[in-house]
Design a protein that fits this description.
The chain is α/β, with parallel strands linked by helices. Helices cover 36% and strands 16% of the residues. The protein has a 7-stranded mixed sheet. It has a two-stranded parallel sheet with strand order 1-12. A two-stranded antiparallel ribbon has the order 6-7. It is globular and about 65 Å long. The protein binds pyridoxal-5'-phosphate. Pyridoxal-5'-phosphate binds next to helix 3. The site of pyridoxal-5'-phosphate has 12 residues, from helix 3.
Length: 360
Amino acid sequence: MTRVYNFSAGPACLPEWVLKKAQEEMLDAHGSGMSVMEMSHRSSAFQEILDTCKARLRRLMNIPDDYEILFCQGGGTMQFSMVPLNLLKHSADIINTGQWTKKAIMEHQKLGKTQVIASSAEDNFTYIPKIKQEDLTSDSDYVYICENNTIYGTKYKELPPHEGKLLVADLSSCILSERTDVSKYDLIFAGAQKNMGPAGVTVVIIKKDLIGHAKENIPSLLDYKTYADNDSMYNTPPCYAIYMVGLVLQWLEEEIGGLEEMEKLTRQRASLLYDYIDQSKLYSNPVAKEDRSYTNIPFVTGDAELDKKFVKEANEAGLVNLKGHRTVGGMRASLYNAMPMEGVYALIDFMKKFEKENLA
Ligand SMILES: *Cc1c(COP(=O)(O)O)cnc(C)c1O
């Protein structure tokens, strides 16, 4: 068996420790004589899996008691609608930093008054627009951001000012990669398939007092209160995905040693690759240095044909899913928690070799 280094932006690689543990427990999970996929979500065995998963997330991220953890479905994308359905009373201020905020804007516009208060669209989203308190709309309920822009490789290093307003953030591609001060946010959401587990579950971390104020007559499953009142089990939850997230959290706690340790690894992975790209004569990264993502790193050679050749040859060398998003082109290396340092070294070695062979 040979495992490749998988640089996919999502669904993404998972820690081998987690996959092996899942394999071990496949036929008989927690002494139940069955796999987690076959369990009733009403069983005590599954309840324990859910409780442990929640407790681990609360410990790891230091989530204060006045925040609720909810497990939803529908991906990050469903949150683009759930957020306004639950929080938008007057209007929403959104900062447009790429594909994932564009889609959030589109859903917001169907449901209420929406202002795009800043955008880096004219520069193909290569930086994070800096806003001031004065840029906010007087009657807006919240400021909405995508903290790490998976496609363009940008990240907020400082949160925007939002005095007197709620802060809502999409952390899909950076959650658990570093320490997060949850108390600075009012609602955080993240689809699991980037850095938390497999696709199928979306984690929502929401201030408790924001629950129960949804628009009237909306479907039950779009109201955060339905999830909060029923321990995320109003209907059948994505049991196996929750179980896998639980294993990833266990790995983070017991094998890595928490988010402070993971943050060091995240920064180390990213600086190894950026340092190499910055001194290289062949590759470049288009993002403003202070806004560079630690988890998604796009790069180009400046020649579309050469980029294609790079992706093909890298793939043959066991470095897969390096093709950039179709709206950016070139390459993108996603360096999430499960990417071992050896994977980063292998990528850089390959890049060096390719540079030598192809630099005119
Ligand atoms: C992938 C991604 C999404 C969309 O997630 P789905 O689960 O496909 O709906 C939203 N936001 C960000 C930042 C993402 O990276």
